[in-house]
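Researcher: We plan to redesign the surface later, but first we want a full-length starting point. Tokens attached.
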């Protein structure tokens, strides 16, 4: 698969490296092409260039720019992103009195929706934002004997199919979470989890799998 990466930071590096290991053709793009060249060399990418060149390269394009800048960049690149799957891994957060806070309004408002509005002919998927970037440096992430589940939201069937194939190629399990209107839930979950980690806690301990006692009945909600 051809994948263009918009950005040169930690998520671009971690996910780009994972995709190179999975055999995909990755081109790293940045506003600073020297930074793009350095990131591409670090992960063994196919090449590097400008944001526009990365947008034009991929069947899939990763939006790995700051959350507040992502919609504006999507609008600038909209003609090049048309018909492509745009993977949004951004997390809209800012420091708050009790840890990081969400910078969108919640509900159905999300960076993913703003990106989709800015680039209406792209197929946006909200994905890869829940985990810390270090997780993507593992060869095949698995925990407690099971492959990592990767939640995502998308409207277009093409985006769902490509995102599913990409996650599977990384040795992970796709976890569809509905349409793009539910992307705000993933963004809020990421901010909550980051706050828990920063406070020294472990977010996964708050979400154990349901377990029925012997003889219990699994009632439908």
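Model: Full-length starting sequence:
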């Amino acid at each position: 698969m051809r994948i263009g990466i918009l950005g040169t930071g930690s998520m671009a590096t971690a996910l780009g490296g994972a995709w190179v290991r999975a055999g995909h053709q990755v081109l790293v793009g940045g506003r600073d092409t020297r930074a793009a060249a350095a990131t591409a060399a670090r992960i063994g990418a196919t090449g590097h260039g400008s944001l526009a060149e990365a947008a034009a390269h991929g069947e899939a394009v990763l939006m790995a720019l700051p959350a507040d800048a992502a919609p504006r960049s999507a609008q600038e690149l909209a003609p090049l992103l048309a018909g492509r799957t745009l993977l949004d891994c951004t997390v809209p957060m800012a420091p708050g009195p009790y840890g990081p806070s969400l910078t969108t309004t919640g509900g159905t408002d999300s960076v993913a929706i703003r990106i989709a509005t800015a680039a209406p002919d792209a197929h946006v998927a909200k994905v890869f934002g829940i985990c810390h970037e270090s997780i993507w440096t593992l060869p095949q992430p698995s925990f407690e004997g099971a492959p990592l589940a990767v939640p995502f939201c998308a409207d277009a069937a093409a985006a769902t199919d490509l995102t599913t194939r990409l996650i599977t190629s990384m040795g992970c399990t796709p976890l569809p979470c509905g349409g793009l209107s539910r992307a705000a839930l993933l963004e809020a979950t990421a901010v909550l989890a980051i706050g828990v980690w920063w406070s020294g806690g472990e977010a996964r301990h708050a979400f154990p799998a349901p377990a029925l006692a012997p003889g219990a009945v699994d009632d439908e909600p």
